[in-house]
Design brief:
The complex is a heterodimer of chains A (649) and B (139).
Chain A: E1 7-12, H1 24-32, E2 37-43, H2 49-62, E3 66-71, H3 74-87, E4 95-99, H4 101-105, H5 112-130, E5 139-142, E6 147-150, H6 154-165, E7 170-173, H7 196-207, E8 213-216, E9 219-227, E10 230-237, H8 251-255, E11 259-261, E12 270-272, E13 274-275, E14 287-288, H9 298-302, E15 315-321, E16 323-326, E17 331-332, E18 348-350, H10 351-358, E19 377-384, H11 401-415, E20 420-425, H12 435-444, E21 448-451, E22 457-460, E23 466-472, E24 477-483, E25 485-490, E26 492-493, H13 498-505, E27 532-534, H14 544-562, E28 566-569, E29 574-576, H15 586-590, E30 596-600, E31 605-609, H16 619-623, E32 629-631, H17 636-647
Parallel strand pairs in A: 1-2, 1-3, 3-4, 6-7, 6-16, 7-8, 16-27, 18-25, 19-20, 19-25, 20-21
Antiparallel strand pairs in A: 5-28, 9-10, 10-15, 11-12, 13-14, 17-26, 22-23, 23-24, 29-32, 30-31
Helix pairs in contact in A: 1-5, 2-3, 5-17, 6-7, 6-14, 10-11, 11-12
Chain B: E1 9-14, H1 18-27, E2 36-41, H2 49-57, E3 62-67, H3 78-95, E4 103-107, H4 113-130
Parallel strand pairs in B: 1-2, 1-3, 3-4
Helix pairs in contact in B: 1-4
Classes of the chains: A alpha/beta (649), B alpha/beta (139).
C-alpha cells in the first residue's frame, strides 16, 4: 500500500471507565495534530453499534485507510473492530488498538494529568505504528480429516471411540504391546462390579472392530512436521515377533528360559520374555520383550503354528492427520528403595500391588498373604509421592488414592473381618460421587483413621516386624503401631517419556512435568499449539471417570476443527522480505517449528518461510543478521516507529 | 497540555503472558507509575536487541522486556532465546556506560499482575534515583 496514510482515531470513553480518569477533550486536541491523522472522534462506547457506525462513516467521509481505536485491551475488542473495518471496506489488519483502559485509565486513576498524558502518548505510539500497517491476507488451508491419538489408555480409547463413531479416521498408537493403560491393571473399581480390565474391555468392544480405527501397539511417535490441519507424523513400530497366527496355546511361554519381573502384576510375579500381558489383553497375542529376549529360539522351535518370527525389524510409518490428541497418561509413583521401608521389607507393598493381590486372578488367587501369612494388622500410609510429604514427593494431590485406599481397606475388612486396619493420612479427599459414603462405611467397619503431621517413620526391626511411628494431629501425641503389612498409597506422576513426546509435538508442561492446557479453566483439553488436544492424566491426576470424560471432550474439541473443510489463521507470520538473504541459515536453526527451509534457485539460495507452519513468534526476525527476515504486523520498522513515538518529547 | 512525564520507560511485553499481566493489573485496579509505555510483541523472542539500543539512543531512561516464565512460552522457548540475547546485550549496555538498573528482563506470567507492579515500582525508584540517562559522546 503506497498511498499516503489517512488515519482515523476513535477514542472510547467506555462510560466513565476511561473518561472518568482521562481528559478526553485534551487527548482529542493532542491527537488531531499527530502526523497522518485526518479524523479524531470520541464516543461513550466505541464498541456499541452507534460507535461502530461512527468509524464506518469516517472511513467513507474522509477516505480513511488506517484506523486507530483507543479503548480497552485488544483481547477484548480487536476482533470486533477488525470486523468493522471489513464492513467499511478496509483490510482488517489496517487497525491498531491503543489500550487506554487496562494500561492507563484503570491503573492511573489517582492522577488525571498523568492518565491523560499516558492516554495520548499511547495513542501517539499506535498512530505511529498504524501509519506503517499493511493490508494482510488471512492464511487458509485445507483440513486433513484424520486424527492421531497418542496413548491407548481409557482416555485415548474414549477419544478414539467418539471420533470413529462420527466417521473420522483415527490412528491410535500405544507404546506398550497392549491397550488399556494403567486402568487395565486395576482391580475392582469402586461402586461397580467391574474390574479395571472390564472397563477397558467395554471400551475396546466399541473400538477394535470399528473400521475407522487403526491400532498400532508397540509404537511411538518420533517426529512431527506441519501444523494444525496438516500434520505429518512419523511413528516407529517395534516388532512384536508374534503374528496373528498365534492361538495363545502357551507352548512358547513354557519353554522360554528368561524370567523377568512382571510389570502388569506390579512386580509381584515373574513373567517370561515371551508373554501375554494379562488375560483378556488386546491384541490377544503373545509378545516378545526384545530387551530381555536372549534369541535362544526355543519359542520359534516349539510354536506349532509358526507364529513366532524373531527376524522382524522395527518399522517406520508416516501418518497424515489434521489433529493430534495426546493421551499419554501417567505412571504410578514408585517409592525409592528404603522410602517407608519399600524394597527393604517384603511386608511393605504399594496400593497397586495390594490391589493386584486382592484380585481373584492374582498369583495368590485373591488371598491376602505375605510370606504365606495372613496379616492381622495393616497400616496404610496415604499421600506417598504426593503433597510434598517427602523431599522427592510431588506437590499435588493425586485425587484417586483416598477413595482407592478406602475401597481396598473395605475389601480386606469384608474378607478378613478380624484384621485391624489403620489409615494414616494427611487429609481425606473423597470428593467423587459416592466416595464420601465409602469413607463413612469405613468408619462404621472400625477402620481407624489417623492424621499425621510429618511423614510417618516405618521402622523395619531385625526380626522383620514393623513399627509405624508418627505424630497424630488430632490427639497431639506420638503414636506407634506395629504392622504385619504396610501399604503405601502412591500417587501419580508424569509418564517417563513425556518430555520426549512434548518436545516432538511442541507442547509446554508445568513445573511437575504434566502437560499444560491452553487455559486451565477455559480450554482444559486444548494445548497452546493449534490442532493439539490433551486427554486424560497427561495433564495431571484424574480418576477413571474424569479421564474418560476428558477423552470425549478432547475428541469433541478436535471435531470443531475437523468438520471444517478449510481453517483460517492470522497472517502474522514471518516472511523473507527481499532478495538480500544470504542463506546463512541462522533462522532455520532458531525456528521451533521447522517452518524455514533454504531453497535453491538457479543461481542463489534463500530462506523461505512456510506460512502454514510458521506460528508467528518472530524469533527468526530478531536473529536475522541482515534484517531481511520480517514479521507481518511486527516488522522492525513498525516496532521501531513505536519506540520512537513512545520517546517523542 | 499535560506535562511530559520523566523518566520514560519502554516495555516490550509478550502477547501471551506479560501483556495479559498488564491487562490484569488494570482489571484489578492496581497502581503503578504511569511512566511505563508498552509495546506489544507476540513473543519476547521477537525483541531485537537493536530496539533496546535504539530506545536508549532516543532518550529512554529504562527498558523492560517481559516474557513468559521458562517452560511456559507459547512458542516453546522464545523466552530462552530472549534470555540469551539479553545476557549479551547487558554487556554491550555496560560498555556504553548504561547503568544495569536501566534494563531488565523479567518473566511475568498472565496471572502475575502483582509481579509486574512490583518490578515497575522497583525500576521506577531505581531509575528515578539514577536521574536521566546521559549517554557518552561516543554513542
Amino acid at each position: 500500500m503506497n498511498e499516503e496514510p489517512r488515519i482515523g482515531v476513535y477514542i472510547c470513553h467506555c462510560g466513565v471507565n476511561i473518561a472518568g480518569s482521562v481528559n478526553i477533550k485534551e487527548v482529542v486536541e493532542y491527537v488531531k495534530n499527530l502526523p497522518h491523522v485526518v479524523e479524531v472522534r470520541d464516543y461513550i462506547f466505541m464498541c456499541s453499534a452507534p460507535g461502530q457506525e461512527i468509524i464506518k462513516e469516517g472511513v467513507k467521509k474522509y477516505n480513511l485507510n488506517r484506523i486507530v481505536v483507543a479503548a480497552c485491551s485488544p483481547t477484548m475488542h480487536e476482533h470486533t473492530f477488525r470486523n468493522v473495518l471489513i464492513e467499511a471496506g478496509l483490510n482488517p489488519y489496517l487497525l491498531e488498538i491503543a489500550n487506554i483502559r487496562e494500561h492507563c485509565s484503570w491503573v492511573h486513576s489517582e492522577s488525571r494529568e498523568a492518565a491523560t498524558w499516558k492516554a495520548y502518548t499511547l495513542i501517539r505510539v499506535a498512530v505511529a505504528k498504524a501509519s506503517l500497517l499493511e493490508p494482510l491476507k488471512d492464511i487458509t488451508f485445507k483440513v486433513n480429516k484424520n486424527v492421531l491419538i497418542v496413548g491407548g489408555g481409557v482416555a485415548g480409547l474414549s477419544a478414539a471411540r467418539e471420533l470413529a463413531l462420527k466417521g473420522f479416521k483415527v490412528y491410535l498408537i500405544e507404546r506398550r504391546p497392549v491397550l488399556g493403560g494403567n486402568t487395565a491393571r486395576l482391580g475392582r473399581i469402586a461402586h461397580t462390579e467391574l474390574k479395571g480390565k472390564d472397563v477397558v474391555g467395554e471400551l475396546l468392544k466399541q473400538v477394535v472392530d470399528n473400521p475407522n480405527i487403526n491400532i498400532y501397539v508397540n509404537t511411538e511417535i518420533i517426529d512431527v512436521s506441519g501444523s494444525v490441519g496438516n500434520f505429518k507424523i512419523r511413528v516407529v513400530r517395534q516388532p512384536r515377533h508374534v503374528n496373528e497366527k498365534c492361538n495363545l496355546c502357551g507352548e512358547c511361554v513354557r519353554v522360554c528360559p528368561v524370567e523377568v519381573s512382571n510389570e502388569y502384576e506390579f512386580g509381584l510375579t515373574k513373567r517370561k520374555a515371551i508373554y501375554l500381558p494379562y488375560l483378556g489383553a488386546y491384541p490377544p497375542l503373545y509378545v516378545i520383550d526384545h530387551e530381555n529376549c536372549t534369541r535362544c529360539l526355543e519359542c520359534v522351535k516349539v510354536c506349532p503354528r509358526n507364529a513366532v518370527n524373531l527376524a522382524e525389524k522395527p518399522e517406520e510409518i508416516e501418518l497424515n492427520v489434521g489433529a493430534v490428541i495426546l493421551a499419554a497418561g501417567h505412571e504410578p509413583y514408585e517409592p525409592l528403595i528404603g522410602e517407608f521401608g519399600y524394597g527393604v521389607s517384603s511386608r511393605v507393598l504399594t496400593l497397586f500391588q495390594l490391589e493386584r493381590m486382592l484380585d481373584e486372578e492374582s498369583p495368590t488367587k485373591g488371598e491376602l498373604k505375605i510370606n504365606g501369612i495372613q496379616p492381622k494388622s495393616i497400616v496404610f500410609i496415604m499421600c506417598v509421592g504426593s503433597l510434598n510429604i517427602t523431599p522427592n514427593a510431588y506437590p499435588y494431590c493425586s485425587r484417586m488414592c483416598c477413595s482407592s485406599t478406602i475401597k481396598n481397606a473395605l475389601v480386606i475388612k469384608e474378607r478378613y473381618p478380624e484384621t485391624n486396619i489403620y489409615i494414616l493420612h494427611k487429609d481425606i479427599r473423597t470428593y467423587s460421587r459416592g466416595d464420601e459414603q465409602l469413607y463413612l462405611r469405613a468408619g462404621e467397619r472400625l477402620i481407624r483413621f489417623a492424621r499425621y503431621r510429618e511423614a510417618p517413620n516405618v521402622l523395619v526391626n531385625p526380626d522383620g516386624s514393623i513399627d509405624v511411628r508418627f505424630f497424630e494431629e488430632t490427639i497431639q501425641e506420638e503414636v506407634s503401631i506395629s504392622a504385619d503389612l504396610v501399604v503405601l498409597s502412591v500417587g501419580m506422576k508424569p509418564p517417563k517419556d513425556i518430555d520426549r513426546i512434548r518436545t516432538i509435538v511442541k507442547v509446554g508442561c508445568g513445573p511437575e512435568g504434566f502437560l499444560r492446557e491452553a487455559h486451565l479453566k477455559l480450554r482444559p483439553v486444548e494445548a497452546a499449539t493449534d490442532g493439539v488436544y490433551l486427554a486424560g492424566t497427561v495433564t495431571g491426576p484424574k480418576n477413571i471417570v474424569e479421564a474418560i470424560d476428558s477423552g470425549s471432550a478432547a475428541a469433541s474439541k478436535a471435531l470443531t476443527l475437523l468438520v471444517k473443510e478449510e481453517a483460517i489463521v492470522e497472517p502474522l507470520v514471518a516472511v523473507v522480505d527481499d532478495e538480500r538473504c544470504s542463506a546463512c541459515s541462522i533462522c532455520v536453526g532458531i525456528c521451533p517449528y521447522n517452518a524455514i527451509r533454504i531453497k535453491t534457485y538457479e543461481d542463489r539460495r534463500i530462506a523461505e518461510v512456510d506460512p502454514a507452519v510458521c506460528k508467528g513468534c518472530g524469533a527468526c526476525v530478531a536473529s536475522c543478521p541482515t534484517g531481511v527476515m520480517q514479521q507481518f504486523g511486527f516488522k522492525d520498522a513498525q516496532l521501531k516507529s513505536q519506540v520512537l513515538a513512545a520517546l517523542y518529547k | 497540555m499535560s506535562q511530559d512525564l520523566e523518566p520514560r520507560i519502554v516495555v516490550f511485553a509478550c502477547n501471551w503472558c506479560s501483556y495479559a499481566a498488564l491487562d490484569l493489573a488494570g482489571v484489578s485496579r492496581m497502581k503503578y507509575p504511569p511512566n511505563f509505555l508498552v509495546i506489544k510483541v507476540m513473543c519476547s523472542g521477537r525483541v531485537d536487541p537493536q530496539f533496546i539500543l535504539e530506545a536508549f539512543r532516543r532518550g529512554a531512561d529504562g527498558v523492560l522486556v517481559a516474557g513468559c516464565h521458562p517452560g511456559d512460552c507459547h512458542y516453546i522457548e522464545g523466552n530462552i532465546k530472549a534470555l540469551r540475547r539479553m545476557t549479551l546485550l547487558r554487556r554491550v549496555l555496560e560498555g556504553f556506560g548504561i547503568e544495569k538498573e536501566r534494563f531488565r528482563l523479567e518473566w511475568i506470567s498472565a496471572s502475575e499482575a502483582e509481579k509486574f507492579v512490583r518490578v515497575a515500582n522497583e525500576m521506577y525508584q531505581e531509575i528515578k534515583s539514577l536521574g536521566p540517562l546521559k549517554l557518552q559522546e561516543t554513542v
